[in-house]
Amino acid sequence: MDTQELPDDELIAQAREWRQRALRGEKDARGMAHELEREARRRFGTPKSDAPQPLPEVRPLGVLPQAPLRRWQPW
């Protein structure tokens, strides 16, 4: 199968199908799934969800905002 000749939607469908076959343990399916996924990455780039996310701001514990202390009222 020539992966470069496949239309985009067929490439994605084939990659998904072969990955499922590989996960079920079918012999030699892993190589074909890898080849199809590599072609999909070449065409579309890597998924945005894998992009590194910015870390939240890090501050020392003494600087963290604290809720106001509740005062005991005798009445």
List the helices and strands and how they pair.
Blueprint: H1 8-23, H2 29-44
Helix pairs in contact: 1-2
**How many strand units?**
0
Q: CA-to-CA gap between the ends? A: 83 Å
Globally, the shape reads elongated
Provide the low-confidence segments as ranges. Answer: none
Q: Percent range for helical residues?
A: 40-55%
Q: What is the radius of gyration?
A: 26 Å
Tell me which oligomeric state these chains represent: single chain
The overall pLDDT average reads 83
The total of helices stands at 2
Our estimate of the beta-strand percent is under 5%
Order of helices and strands: HH
The biggest beta sheet is recorded as: none
Q: Which structural class do you get from the secondary structure elements?
A: mainly alpha
Q: Which tags fit this structure?
A:
mainly alpha
